[in-house]
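Running this now, will post back.
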Amino acid sequence: MNRLFTAFATGLTVAALAAGCGGGGDNGGGDSQAAASVEASAPLTKAEFIKQAQALCEKNREQVAKNLTSYQEQNGLLNARDIGPEAVEPILLSVFRDEVDELSSLPAPRGDEEQIEVLLSMKQQAIEAVEKQSLSSNLELAKAFKPSDQLATTYGLNACVFS
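Update: finished.
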């Protein structure tokens, strides 16, 4: 099982580093606070939602990589193979919980509200299953997140999947 968790940790590091590549930035619009507030509550188009959600998820994958590095440093571990299952919470689940909250705050595209709600509910259920069952191997974690990953991929949120 430790070998599988090592693969999980190594895979997350690679995925997080890959997600860090790419661009983002603002378009220098200088919008007023009131306009930003109205825009934040208005439904996004599907393309806008996907763009913003992907950016959030990429940021979170970078955080997972930072958490992994920090965990290794704090525990005197030289490589990911030395990380045990107790690291799932501080490295991964805390970030995924925040991700669900952040994605929930994005206004879903009109007509897709239920689909987004189901996706986030499925991801939350996977987090709870991992906590309750103390899942730690890469295979167990991938299986727990598979339903939400499939829905995320179908919707176009490839950066928001576990594996």
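The longest helix spans residues 46-74. More later if anyone needs it.
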